Amino acid sequence: LASTENWVGSWRPHKPRGPIAAHYSSPGPKYGLPGSTGTLNHDPRKHQFPAYTFGLRHCALRRECSPGPTYFIPPCITRTGKEGVPSYSLYGRHKEFNKFRTPGPGQYYPEHSGKNVFTTAPAYTMGSKCKGFKNEQTPGPAAYSLPPMLGPKVVNKSSSPFYSMSGKSNIGSFCEDLKKSPGPASYTTTDLNTYKYKSPQFSMIGRNVMPGDSTRKPGPGAHCPVEVSFKQQK
Question: Which helix (H) or strand (E) holds 116?
Fold first, then answer.
C-alpha cells in the first residue's frame, strides 16, 4: 500500500475493516452450501449412503458367580430348617408390673362438685405481675446533647478561621546539622581499669553487735517489799 504519490487530504491507503463486495464474484463464504459427507447437516439434495458406527466395548462378564466367603452358609442349615440339638438362651428378668392403685376416700373432693352441678357466679383471679415485659426505654431530654459552638467543627454555624502554631523547624536554621557527624558526647569513654592497673576497692559493711540477752528483767520499782509477810515457825 505504500506509494510515493502525493495524497489529497488526510486519506491514506489502509486495510479494509470488512469485506468489500466488489472484490468477490460470488456471495462469499457467508452463504456456504451444506456438506455432502457425514451424517450431521448433510445436504438434503444429495443421496446419503448408510453410515455405520462401531459401538463401545462392553465390559467382560464376571466369572465369579458365587457370593464368596462373605456370605458363607453354615452347614447345619438345611432346606427344612436348622439341624442339630436344641439350644437355649437365658434372658434377664422382666420388670414386675405395677399394680393398679385404687384411690382411697381422701383422694376425692366433694366440695368442688358444686361448680359442675349447680350454677355459680363467675369467679376471677388476679395473677402476679409479669416480669417478661419491660417498659419502653424512651430517652429523656438529658439524653440529647447539642454540638459545641466553639471551634471549627460547628455544623450549622459559620466559624472563624482556625490556625495552629507548629514547633520551630531546624531545617534551614543554624541548628541544622548539615554534616550529620556525631559529636563528642556520642562516643563512650573506656574504663581506665581496662588498660591500666586497677586500684584497690573497699566496701563498708554494717557494724557488728555483740550477742547479749534481750529478755526484759524487772527493776527496783517492780518489787513491793511492803506486801511481803513472814511468819516465824515455833
Answer: helix 114-117
